[in-house]
Amino acid sequence: MDYLLTEEQQMIKELCHQIAEEKIKPVAAEYDKNEEFPWDIVKVFADSDIFGVYIPEEYGGMGGGVLEMAITTEELSWGCGGIALAFAATGLGTFPILLFANDDQKARYLPDIAAGKKLAAFCITEAEAGSDAGSIKTTAKKDGDHYILNGTKQWITNGSVAETYVVIAMTDKSKGARGASAFIVEKSMEGVSFGKKEDKLGIRGSATCEVILTDVKVPKENLLGREGLGFIVAMKTFDYSRPGVAAQAVGIAQRALDESVKYARERKQFGSSISSFQGIQWMLADMAIQIEAARSLIYSAARLVDSGAKNVAKASAMSKTFASDTAMKVTTDAVQIFGGYGYMKEYPVEKLMRDAKITQIYEGTNQIQRSVIASALIKESLAKK
Amino acid sequence: MKIVVLIKQVPDTTDVKIDPETNTLIREGVDSVINPFDMYAIEEAIRIKEHLGEGEIVVISMGPPQAEVALREAISMGCDEGILVSDRKFAGSDTWATSYTLSRAIKKIGDFKIILCGKQASDGDTAQVGPGVSVHLNIPQVTYVKKIEKLDKDKATVERMTEEGYDIVETPIPVLLTVVKEINEPRLPSLKGKMRAKKAEIPVWTAEDLACEEDKVGLDGSPTRVVKIFTPPPREGGRLLEGEPDEISKELAGLLKDTIIG
Questions:
Q1: Taking a C-beta distance cutoff of 8 angstroms, is the pair B116, B4 a contact?
Q2: CB contact (8 A) between residue A62 and residue B191
Q3: Rounded to two decimals, what is the model's pTM?
Q4: Which of A83, A162, B149, B246 is the most exposed place for a label (fewest CB within 10 A)?
Q5: Chain A contact present for B260, CB below 8 A
């Protein structure tokens, strides 16, 4: 399949695949087992300029966009969907800065992120608020030149390992979702602490924990955009980041297919390799069809976002939904093809199935995505009248 | 200060097949890579530059025009400049002619302090070109280097691997070092390096550019003649002695007497 990539995009794809193959794949099972953070791989990403692929050149990046981010995430996730998050979740924490920060904020935060010196994270979810951003309980109270932040953010990817956090907090509770604002919070600020590290089903090579804010004094220069823009910041950020989740899903799915084809050729039953059985062949073909379709949808959505088009929420949500559902289906089939071996941790496919599941859940469950898609359809229909 | 790295493009040996008729390498459809041992030389050069915070790394490869790919890869890892030494007149060069030609290229660069090579190439396996270059340049050589301990203005201290352990060698600079895989772990290229490599100009130096003496290059300048290349016959299987320990030990002693003492 030719994805009409530019020479530079092809270069990114090849280098990231090389990193996945040579550096990530050999250690993925170990990080999955011990649930540790892969600092050694983060260093490889940094040394290879990976963190800067979607950051403008003037801030030390490579000048790419969402497509470059997606290509990178896909290839790294082929190696390990958890380890890839050190990169991808940093992207989620960086997009609000790219999209809403002023020049001063960009100059202060982007170069270290592009160079891989600092990881980033995005903090919206709380115990009682996720996609329902209006229910956020974390508060930001104006106090002279500062805002005082209080609250607990939950399930934060890159929590504790990141230095730069974009936090959504309520500056005016009475306004609901329109009373939310976005702040850049640094790990080193007094009052920032981290809660329990989560024991997860999959993506165990990534750090997930609570981010606890106790009277954190954030200078007003760290407010993104203006007060009340928090919900918009979050929604726009997800428009940009969801193709990344989709790419993570497709990377995991592609790995499942590659492992399945290889295994089906090697495994012999009834005197011949199981790849000669039509039952297996049709499964492999269906896996491949779905992966290619998902990838095409991701690249189209990413290109649409990069084109500067105004309404991208629908395309972005479609790519995330389709790719993550595909990953779940494909990895489940991969375990099936491996049979009893597939169920064992000695073989790589059960991990792929565990890693795939989160892509249907985070950055908005696939049910929320369908709501986003449906409301865009209805809006478009209304506009036609 | 200039650091020179000599590299060779070789067939990817993880994928090598031998033509049973001619007993030569089948090169069609086989990817070319930088000689794996030369990757350690490249990495060490980059580390020296990073350590010193200055310097310029010049990579040289002698070979056909497609060896340019290897030079670009070296640049993508962090080398500054690549030079391709290539001329039809160089065809058929043995290790003597090759090391002579490379030494001419290094002289043309001038101002070099350290020359790094892999300990040997994975295709020819001679381990002669590096040392040969040092002789042509009349500078010292240290082979099988596994660590550069200290690097001063006019001397270096290195660890040289031996079968039993290692020697610590102090050598004046300029020096030629051939390195073993224990010395480092080569890095992957970076995206910015790849961009730079794509745009880099790779000059091609010919026999004329290097003012080579005609009778010292190519087949004519090569004292080595390859008479025959063959695959040694596989070792024949051993013999399993069976029976009571008493009988077996006697039989074994007899066999040892016959075969070893004769």
A1: yes
A2: yes
A3: 0.88
A4: B246
A5: no
